Amino acid sequence: MNDRARTWPALEIGPTSDLLLAALTDFDTTAIEEQQDDRWRVFFATAQARDRAAAALRTDFPEATLTSVDVPDENWAARSQAGLRAIRAGRIVVAPPWDRPAASSPGELVIVIQPSMGFGTGHHATTRLCLEAMQHLDVRGRRVIDAGTGSGVLAIAASLLGAATVVGFDDDADAIQSAGENLDLNPGARVALDVGDLRGVALPAADLVVANLTGGLLISEAPRLQRLVAPRGWLVLSGLLEHEEHEVTAAFAPRRVHSRSREDDWLCLTLGE
Ligand code: SAH
Q1: What is residue 225's predicted lDDT score, i.e. its pLDDT?
Q2: Which atom of ligand 1 is nearest to the CA of 213?
């Protein structure tokens, strides 16, 4: 991400045993990484999930040392991709190529994303919140813009959810390159991808604009984001922290908050007229 370091909730555990590693499958882990000397680092979707697991493991494995850590984004992304697992958000499963679900249940949508240094494997709270918010809106037959598409995950999701047209853009050319590769891994999705900066973008208006950016960018670019929305359209905003909520909603007034979801300190707001 750009302005602000993101961190990932993790537990450092050592020494581990096969029993302890097996016990981890009961919890909502997103990645497991082996370190030196039989120490493991286990990533969780949320700090609450991490704390729940730590409390249970402390009771069942009193001999193990369990330390809660918040791992900076880059460090994590560079070193633990091979351990990434599929995650679920509503009826969408975002899976790395090596952890595609063997069989999908009815109504389930599987999106394959090759983890890369870019943001958007689906393992960050804000990506999952946006995926869930999009499923609460009916995007079938609608035009969708994904501002700051990263890996392309939200754009691909919009297309698989039935959007008529989807445009994803990002000011990072490497992100657009990976988004293109991810599009190839999801042959059912149709997305137009482009390198572009939100601060200068000119696109035809869409019925839904998804923007998982930062609070600061959402506030400064609110007028431009609003111009991208067609009459009676929707905005799904994330990447803002709870303490930025009032400033963000004020920047988008008179649009109203129709729904709001939160994970840890991260928020996702759905705004409409
Ligand atoms: N949509 C993805 C990625 C979100 S990360 C997801 O939800 O997981 C935010 C993305 O916005 C990054 O890929 C970053 O390169 C891009 N971004 C940041 N500032 C931007 C700007 N001014 N214009 C366009 N894209 C921007």
Answers
A1: 97
A2: 9
